[in-house]
Amino acid sequence: MASPPLGDDDREQWRSKLLEYYSSNAPAKAVMVTDAMMDKWAGKYEELYANMVEKYGPLGSPIVPKPAPKARPAATADPAGYGKQPAAGGKQSGVAEFRDEFVKLVAVATAAIPTRSSEAAPSLVDAKSNYSANGLETSTFTLCTRIRPTLPHEEGRGGEYFTCIVPGESSTSAGGERTEAALVLTPKVSMTGAPKLEKTSFAFDYTFGPDSTNDEVYAAIGAPLARRALAGSVGVVFAYGQTGSGKTHTMNGLLDGIIGDLYADATAEQRQIKFSYLEVQGESINDCLADLQAGGSKGSAAGKGATGVGAVKIGEALDGRVMTRNLSEHVAGSRAELVALVGVAQSRRRTEATEKNDTSSRSHGVAILEVGPLGSGSGSGLGDLSPGRLYIIDLAGSERAADSKEHSKARMEETKAINLSLMSLKECIRARTMASRPGGGLSVHVPYRRSKLTLLMKDVFDIGCARLCATVVIAAVSPLAQDVAHSTNTLQYAAPLRVAVGVSQVPIELDPRDPVLWTQEQMCSWLSETAAIASDEPGSEEPVPFDAQALFGLMSGMQVCLLAESEFHKRVQSQVPGAAGGGLAKRLYAALWMLIVDAKTRKRSPNGRLITEAEETAAKEASEVERAEKQELWKDREKQLATERSFN
């Protein structure tokens, strides 16, 4: 009598079945069946097993690898000794054969790199807040790379399983921006059959080496984002890289730390935390928590491992706000509830077997945390505050065309869609960084509407967004020589995202209308005048005493502009309580951000000089005159042609 099928809760039986399968069809992979793997795939072991069968064949009938292609004729072959081609004398001369020599060469090359200080990584997000001498960086981008350590099943395997990607040297630019390199030592065999290393360096804001822990990564980039969310700002973190490079491990560590900080905050009881999770596959978007009761009760995570996903629509409203339809929000009253929701969502992401990973994520996973005040009653004005938002995005595993050539047509189309969305993300980050330069806001187009993923991040990419935003991109790479082509591809994609904006090639004229550059006296004077105007508006209540000097007298223009919206409201309402104070704070904050955005988008001449309104009007009038003259010229030309035709 046949044994009943295993359920997803039969952990130990599944462990035995997976070990049996790997031992039969892929013995080298048997070491991967660990507690960590069983925890990761809890609730969906059947899906994992199906992925394995697709890649390695039915149990006991492993798929035989395809034979290597025949060598090309000598007249058209690559130079001897290149890559895995035969070297002089007909001997197979590849990287694996010279492993010991390459290990020695790498040791010599890395010995000259100064040892990094034992100090913890700096708060990278905070350090990026303002490199510009003229204007506030309202949306900053921090670019990091993380080189994962060698995994236990990779140690002692010989061949190309040796380290060739390491943290490089650090430097500081003239504008004060600090960079750290990721050094790639590509092993190659020369035409004469001698091993050599090809050095390539990529600059990042910070490079986390194999010894870096998740705690170190979180302190540098996760904790500052959590603080920003608590202050009402927007934080985004992306992880990009080849499948198996440690993206998901890094993102899970960041998510764990962020969750801990959100509930450890002293004001946690006064806040409401909402959680959503969606997966993006090209133009298809699914809610991974669709079947759970919105509002997130303690028992809402009981359906772990289910396939409860639902289609989500993303678009823009007439007022420019991004709208999501059919995306559920779940209130998490405790850390345990939020952890349970995260577990359910991650278990429902789509995975497939690829050349590099049996369980590669084939969709972009987007976790959305919204942090807002617990209530908006009592006439406090809290309902007018914008909630803080965090987007934790685990991008789908990147693949080169060469990796997917053996895949089905559907899988190749899927890979194409993933790579297109990654390209859109790259273009948006570069364009938005360029737009941060004084006067660049009008000359740079940020194509965030090209993909649903970047449209969802409109606050980050829109130059007119009236919120402080901070984005971190982590490029995850493997240190091994066997993965050097993939790792180099990842670094080549990620490194250009870092665009230095601190030093201008031309002298930039300071903008006296930019509130970031105002003195204490100028800022207090403007606040007082604006408050008086707001009190005189139709429908306003009786004027209330407002002393800007008492609230902001010790702060510069930059410091006031950097205040979180919640802190700004709190200061105003400490002097003007009730609904009147809430309304006044809202109008003052909106007016301040209008000035900030105007300063970012104000036109400048190529030499950095501000174009005045009179000059802009004169240029517009001259353009109209020129256009009218051209129209008259064309009319005369048409009359002349008509006359010539009549004579003929």
From TrEMBL:
<keyword id="KW-0493">Microtubule</keyword>
<keyword id="KW-0067">ATP-binding</keyword>
<feature type="region of interest" description="Disordered">
    <location>
        <begin position="67"/>
        <end position="91"/>
    </location>
</feature>
<dbReference type="GO" id="GO:0005871">
    <property type="term" value="C:kinesin complex"/>
</dbReference>
<dbReference type="InterPro" id="IPR036961">
    <property type="entry name" value="Kinesin_motor_dom_sf"/>
</dbReference>
<dbReference type="GO" id="GO:0005874">
    <property type="term" value="C:microtubule"/>
</dbReference>
<feature type="compositionally biased region" description="Basic and acidic residues">
    <location>
        <begin position="617"/>
        <end position="648"/>
    </location>
</feature>
<dbReference type="Pfam" id="PF00225">
    <property type="entry name" value="Kinesin"/>
</dbReference>
<feature type="domain" description="Kinesin motor">
    <location>
        <begin position="140"/>
        <end position="500"/>
    </location>
</feature>
<feature type="compositionally biased region" description="Low complexity">
    <location>
        <begin position="71"/>
        <end position="80"/>
    </location>
</feature>
<protein>
    <recommendedName>
        <fullName>Kinesin-like protein</fullName>
    </recommendedName>
</protein>
<dbReference type="GO" id="GO:0007018">
    <property type="term" value="P:microtubule-based movement"/>
</dbReference>
<keyword id="KW-0505">Motor protein</keyword>
<comment type="similarity">
    <text>Belongs to the TRAFAC class myosin-kinesin ATPase superfamily. Kinesin family.</text>
</comment>
<feature type="region of interest" description="Disordered">
    <location>
        <begin position="616"/>
        <end position="648"/>
    </location>
</feature>
<dbReference type="GO" id="GO:0016887">
    <property type="term" value="F:ATP hydrolysis activity"/>
</dbReference>
<keyword id="KW-0547">Nucleotide-binding</keyword>
<dbReference type="InterPro" id="IPR027640">
    <property type="entry name" value="Kinesin-like_fam"/>
</dbReference>
<dbReference type="InterPro" id="IPR001752">
    <property type="entry name" value="Kinesin_motor_dom"/>
</dbReference>
<dbReference type="GO" id="GO:0008017">
    <property type="term" value="F:microtubule binding"/>
</dbReference>
<dbReference type="InterPro" id="IPR019821">
    <property type="entry name" value="Kinesin_motor_CS"/>
</dbReference>
<dbReference type="InterPro" id="IPR027417">
    <property type="entry name" value="P-loop_NTPase"/>
</dbReference>
<feature type="binding site">
    <location>
        <begin position="241"/>
        <end position="248"/>
    </location>
    <ligand>
        <name>ATP</name>
    </ligand>
</feature>
<dbReference type="GO" id="GO:0003777">
    <property type="term" value="F:microtubule motor activity"/>
</dbReference>
<dbReference type="GO" id="GO:0005524">
    <property type="term" value="F:ATP binding"/>
</dbReference>
<dbReference type="InterPro" id="IPR013761">
    <property type="entry name" value="SAM/pointed_sf"/>
</dbReference>
